[in-house]
Hints:
The protein is mainly beta.
Amino acid sequence: MSRWKWLLVLVAATGAGLSANVARAQSSVQMFGIIDSGLTYVSDRGGHSKIAATDGIQRNNFFGIQGAEDLGGGRQAIFRLENYFALNTGAIAGSAFFTDTYVGIRDSKLGQLTFGRQYDFGANMVRYLACLECGIYVVENADLDRAAGDHLSNTVQYKSRNYAGLTFGAMYGFGQNATGSTNLGRSYSLMLQYESGPLSAAVITTNINGSPVSTSSIGVPVFMGVNTNSGPTVYVDQRRIYAAGASYKFGALTAMAMYTNTRFTLDAQSSTDQVLRAGVTYLARPDLLFAFMEAVDRLDQSRWYSSYASVSYLFSKRTRVYFDVGYQKATGAGTVASISQIGRSSTDKQALARVGLIHNF
């Protein structure tokens, strides 16, 4: 290394040390993440049963850094950098170094304003998935309604403070005409949520111009005029995503339900997807959690009826093992079962079983 490079390293290190000393009393930085891996058995994938090592199923594997600096007067500067990875291969998600990134200001009276690549408000609805412990498998048909929580690029997002249990938010995305974009054109998302005691409820709407859909994950032969057997990713306009969800706690049992209605357009084609999910979670003991959910998915003339169940044993607040099962039955001409992240069945039926381990840090 040349003497100039050594000098630059020394200056940078000295500056970082001084900055850390100045900010230590008023700033905080936290590293966090989730690691999930296990084995999944599938009854039918392309005509064959299969057992495989899979990861990031009950929760996405991710690593993140977030921080806040106290600016005084009830205000903080905040940031978050987060990325997903495949535990079994070590690969990062896509080509982006970070997939969830924002910086902004939080004010105790005015709310929070952030800028970056952020989750739309559909992510707020994840809490109303009764079998959230069943992971990504409960997401229907290529996540057409974005129920798993998805990002939008080049966004500005506002979240209000809590007004006696009521919060609201709005975000706008300027689009990103680039490979791998989640919104080629403009997008927006709105949210209204209420929480009081055992009750929680929310409604959201999201609108995206140019949203990618992996057609190979949908159990129909044709979607929006596109042959799904070749499995292309197409960019459609999600003209309307409406979602409403609610949960209510009855002691150790929590009942949850969520409905989504998504309208797509592509050139002269249009399509509507509706999904109703309902179920319960039951904390039998502080270390034993049960969950069950039923789902009905209607995409035009096709239907998918799904059942999911899960049991989790908690070794600690951060580590647990779990066992999941799922079953799906499809109806409609040419329609096959296609549980999320599994791949299409060769018939109208598909079942799975999974055992896994998850650790939070």
